[in-house]
Amino acid sequence: MSGKPKLETVAKKAGVSVATASQVIRGTGRISAKTRKKVLAAAEALHYVPDGRAASMRSGEKREIGMIIHRIANPFNAEVISGVSDALEAGGYLVSVLDSQDDAERQKRNLQAFIRSSRGGLLWVPAQDTPAETADLLKTHTIPTVTFLRTSGFDNFDHVGIQNSDATYKATNHLCDLGHRHIAFFGGEAHSDVRIERIEGYSRAMHERGFETTIVWDAPDDKQSGMNAMLELREKHPEVSAIVCNGDVVALGACHALRRIGEMPGQEVSVVGFDDIQDASVATPPLTTMAVSPYQLGKILAQKLIGRLTDPEAPVSSTLLPAELIIRETTSAFSG
């Protein structure tokens, strides 16, 4: 057989009318179990897949969701996407993901692509310096949208985020309680909402303890950059005995750097990550971190959008989730 199989072909093979075949495929109507079985067997034999776009045009219901995130390769993002995908699939939705690389122009092209393909909703981490016109674009096309992590300028959309400042405040106090005085904030480089909030929590804890000297050390959030930046930090600020990190990935890079120069994370330098990705618990040594459970975050994000799709007139809501300090082996009492 050549060409894409049609519903008419399935009906003919099953020996039923097109209307009956359509009801079976859509799961509607009072069809006998025997007839239903014949139609489904014919559809499987012909590799028939319903045209979802045509169906959505008929019903007005769009079951495909778009997601725009930055740096899919980051394990945190990968785990979030996994949670989103599982939750949406369970609700009968399909998600497609695009990576804008935190670039506003690339993001605009991503959004236009989703609009052209009639996505039913959007999960969106706004790129740094996203212009107000982008929000207007989404409102013009009435796309139900939930923002994730970043909120600046987009308060009209539902949002799921993290209590970033409180989390790094707690992480910094943990290190202070262990006797550390020279503590640096480590990782990240953009002046994004998330990083600004995390630095604020770190700075607040340091100032409350009476430590006026703070160090904010930039590093792209990947292992290689974390390793290189940690080597530079150790050279320029050998007095630093602990770091609060912008994410687990850059923290793991810092741990690699310490081992490379013969120091053990949790002994010469205490390290606290942020996220609790899967690699954190199996690292050598296991990473102390602020856990936000990225897979569960993804499920909550998806459920927020499903709620918006179910009740389009509901008030806009914002959900900020706390982070839990998970103490493992990369933090210990100051011994210097």
Query: What is the third-level CATH name, the topology of the largest domain?
Result: Rossmann fold
Q: Spatial order of the strands in the main sheet?
A: 2-1-3-4-5-11
Helix and strand element order: HHHHEHEHEHEEHEHEHEHEHEHEE
Total of domains: 3
Task: Give structural notes.
This protein is of the alpha/beta class. The protein has three domains: 7-50, no CATH class; 63-161 and 294-320, Rossmann fold; 164-293, Response regulator (Rossmann fold). The protein is built from 13 helices and twelve strands. It has a six-stranded parallel β-sheet, with helices on both faces. Strands 7-6-8-9-10-12 form a six-stranded mixed β-sheet, sandwiched between helices. The protein is elongated. The mean pLDDT is 91.
